Amino acid sequence: MKRFFLISAILVCLAPLAHGQYTSFGLKAGLNFTSLPSEQNGSTSDYIVSAFSDSYTGYHVGGVALFLFRGGFFQPELLYTQTGRDMRLAFIESDQEDEYFTQKYSHLVMPLIAGAKFGALKIGAGPVFSFLINDWNDLGIEEELSQELKKLTLGYQIGAGLQLGNLALELKYEGNFTEFGEGITIGGETIKFDSRPHQFILSLGILF
Q1: pTM score
Q2: Which positions ≥6 away from 97 have C-beta within 8 Å?
Q3: Per-residue pLDDT tens for 107-120?
Q4: Is 194 among the domain residues?
């Protein structure tokens, strides 16, 4: 219910912008390159879990609106995104080989980007709301691994793009104000992680 009211409030605030000098709607898709600031490690009595800092390539797809004003723009988006991270599970008291697996996440993401426009060039920044839809992994052992994840997180995006007629090419950086997760649980024990991934986002859009 809280999510419903949050989304409703944002849409109400956006409604007056439809009277801008130029308004268009469209679709966009692209790639997300997600990584951690550094490798993270944690252990239980039986396992050592590592989250690698290397970049993971995911994707996004969804809708976008563009409101142009004299010298500026406002661009709200609603996107489905899939991201992930590569991880390793090591066994402390066993000769079993380490397990390498990928933890994946799907989100409904709402960036609200505003900025300046210089001809075809756009430069902007703004908040981004992320709603967790699902998470899963391909760990190849019977022991269940789960994460304590937050359903709603707040971050920010900053970037630049080119508006070439009805086509838009954008490159943005995304960081986080809030932690994405609090820990990983395996074998009945929880490992605490301060999980604040960041990502570079490359998008191609078309406006109608």
Answers
A1: 0.85
A2: none
A3: 999 999 999 999 99
A4: yes
